[in-house]
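FORM 7B: Structural annotation worksheet

SECTION A. Query
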Amino acid sequence: MDVKMPVPVMEPVRVEVPRPRSGWSVEVKWDGVRLLAHRDGGEIRFYGRSGREYTPGLGDLAARVLAAVGPREAVLDGELVAWAHEGPSFPDAVRALRGGRGQRITYEVFDLIGEDGSDLRALPWEARRRRIESCLDPGPVVHPTRVFPGEQAIEVYRAVEKLQLEGVVMKDRDSPYVGGKSRYWEKAKHDAEGVFRVGSWRRTPGGATLHLLDAGGRPVGAVSSGVDADHITRLRALTGGQGGALPPGVEARVRFHGRTAAGRLRHPRLMGLLPQ
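SECTION B. Predicted structure
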């Protein structure tokens, strides 16, 4: 296949509110993990946003993708979503990515960037979307994500908010697939969210507190909401105790409601520790 893996993924730019437009589409932004699936020969290999391979822990999903794609060679782009009782769960999606069991997962396919030896990235989004429909035999686990007309962007955004989902992604129907952030794709989310370095942590009664730093190493606050037993187990393995400084590279995905005048996160909630 002409598409060399791993592929630099295309990413949307952030906007505050979606803008209704003809010639665009709208998709739900699930609270999951970006995942590329590459079928070459009789194997499926999975890659994350960074290019890291996650094939060993996703054997069950690989069988589902093989069944959905059939004999075609293909490179799919989509989102691995783990479903908890209340809806999509990012921590559960990370656990599934790392080989955890017991989560109900789906693979929401939103792009097809290679098929049967052809690199499709130069094609417009609309053409790639049509090829998804013909390429996939959808099932309850692997299927194309639903698409809405761009003129309905506000209605979809409000409906997603009522369902307490993450947000929406708007895509220019004429857009090629380009690596990195692109104005061809936009995302609007209901809460601010970011990835921060975890500088240190400490055990607290019933939980733990993580001290967060921005990209420049400046403190932006601490988070204890959302910290669970799995997070604590990972942190203890890194420090060998009930707290302490963490090595560089430990990062957390945090959702929050804006910042204070001093730049601290307001009402932060840990969504998950990123895979290392």
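SECTION C. Observations
Residues 68 and 137 are 5 Å apart (CA to CA). The helical segments are 59-69, 90-97, 125-135, 153-162, 229-239.

SECTION D. Sign-off
Analyst initials: ____
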